Amino acid sequence: MRARLANAAWALAARPAATAFHRALADPERAQTRLLHSILRANADTVVGRAHGFGQIRTLREFQDAVPLVGWDEVAPFVERIAAGEPNVLTSEPVRLLEPTGGSSGGTKLVPYTRTLQRQIRAAVAPWVADLFRHVPAAAHGPAYWSVSPAVPHERTAGGVPVGFEDDGAYLSPLHRTLARATLAAPSALRHVADPEAFRYATLRWLVARRDLALVSVWNPTFLALLLCPLRDWADRLADDLDRGTLSADVPPAVRAGLDRDSARARDLRRLAAGTTTDADLVAGLWPRLALVSAWADGHAAGPADDLRALVPQAAFQAKGLLATEGVVTVPLWGRDGGAPALTSHVLEFVPESGGRPVFAHHVETGERYGVVLTTGGGLYRYRLGDTVEAVGRVAASPLLRFVGREGPVSDRVGEKLHEGHVARALAGLGLGGFALVAPDGDARPCRYVLFTDGTASDARLAQAARRLDAALVGNVHYALARRLGQLGPVAAFRIRDGGATAFLEGCVALGQRLGDVKSTALHRDGGWAGRFDGAFVSAES
Description:
By secondary structure, the protein is of the alpha+beta class.
């Protein structure tokens, strides 16, 4: 009852922002112009604002003419000045903290967070919550599991700027944070559990106690699949803990706080573990009221998302919008293909994949692909996010956008300049099914690329797929030259025995990415994946 009341209050509190959002969808040009004026006025007397004449800019077009497109390399020197303690660099208001991220293209970035940026993110969360609870009311009738990010060691820069949020809920306002915490099926203290197995076990211990679990929100669908995978094997241990009101894992005391004995639930767990034959039946029996699962489902997350739908058959599924540490791009709307642009959060521009001047939301054309550019209250101005979206429809006067993939990474071992978009299209044409990844094999002589897949195709078909992929990559003149000169060998095939998506997630974490930052990708720039996957190379003669 407590969670249900808190969710009702949260939905009510979200209505004003939701109303403003839908009003913006009906007139995107007006909404974006007003938001731009607000951002520029507030930051006209900053280092960047003075350099680009923010105070003289009146129109969207003038903004594009005055301010160049930038990537992280151009932003980083200004962030270094902020980290050193210099004020009024990117924003006039103080930078509250620098949030670390290591997106799928690699590298570490410290993204400046201001109060305005946090308000802008909340302006996107609110319409999603309001829309979701309106169309799937059962999702608000019980507690929710929101995946938590691993804790970042508390530290400050040389200039005294904090690094990292202390809690995922810090993105929300105090009111919304209080309401959200009242709905939690598992405590946020789980983020302090460093050992992956202990984290999974402790999370399951909390979740199995909640038969009334109503909503699950994770980023990567393989995260939830990995969490649920050992459920059957741990059933007796979990049931014993339920009987005793304990948690048999090495976790901080805050993770144990509030656990109760529940012998009836322990009997349910033992009965379901013994009486079901599939993991899906076990999951459905344990959480019969689970109404909705929210996770990434676009780009290369589509396959793992389908697997997750099968694992949690009792719940409806909604694909997440496009959200990065730097800002929000789209807000999911129930029953819509793609997400609506976050017009009340940031100024959004879209760079046509076919070339030409960036356009604003009201000029986006259905069927076209675009690179995303953000201007935010956190001090990013015309920042190329590195994500590609496709316009798949319309809502009011605005486009519906679906994430396609990263504009990067670009893999460039010997000058081949392989782009993920090119590789993704080539993989799609192979029709392999299951998980697939292309990555360089720097240990081979000469260097080569490897097609990693956990599909069920025969060895002969996998070898043929590698040859077809190689032929498709030759469409890149730089790759073709490297192959012709013998700098690159032909693509090899590697069969992953089981769970490619899960192994990829774990491999990225081992490489230093935060769990919540791992995005599915067709191309990874790092080598060494043959040692991270359980499997073997397929003979080229097959």
